[in-house]
Amino acid sequence: MEQSMVINGLSETLLEARPESITDQSWLKMQQKAKAMIILMLTIPVRRALPDRMKSETTVAAMLKLLSAKYESRSMLRQVFLKRKLEACRYAEGENMHTYLTEIATNIAELSRIGVSVSVDEHYQRILLGLPPSYDAVVATLEGSTERKISDLEARLLLEEQKRKDSASQVLTVSTRTKTMSTRKKVFCEHCKKIGHKMDRCWVLHQNKRKKVQNRVLW
Questions:
Q1: Single pTM value for the model
Q2: 64 and 14 in contact (C-beta within 8 Å)?
Q3: Is 188 helix (H, G, I), strand (E, B) or coil?
Q4: Is there a smaller number of Cβ atoms within 10 Å at the N or the C end of the chain?
Q5: In whole angstroms, what is the distance from residue 122 CA to residue 107 CA?
């Protein structure tokens, strides 16, 4: 706001008192114009929330002091909140990696909007710090990278997540097959004394069922 006053030739209005070179009438007009500019630069919700005391201030300097006291403290609290939220980001086994990466990127973008910059290195480290111990080997490899790009890091982690899902799926398939075979081995026929079927499916006992199946195959 102070820069706008300078650009529009109203830098004197930032002073606490009227310079002797400016008449009372000119000073009043300059103050009115500067205050109107400040109010127009504020968002509509902020304008509506302005207390009467702030609107009635006779000097721009006093008005800016009140604005600063009112909103800079809120900005500081917002910074603390977003930084804590960023540090709390964690990826847990089984969760969606894309969601985790997006949460970090969103928090960093919000910090940027209120004037707090987060470097690429800090962003990179924040992602790695939130990974669980099972990713230690991956983290060790990534930390040794000389060229750090967030896009490359995200792609690597998404690929790792997919590999783990595929591996878990294969293990589950093998386990299911093993369980099925084990179950079949436990089935025992009391008639022919063989494993793999029960009496109601025994072809030795039920010759007619066997013939029907053979006829279907021949047909």
A1: 0.49
A2: yes
A3: strand
A4: C
A5: 13
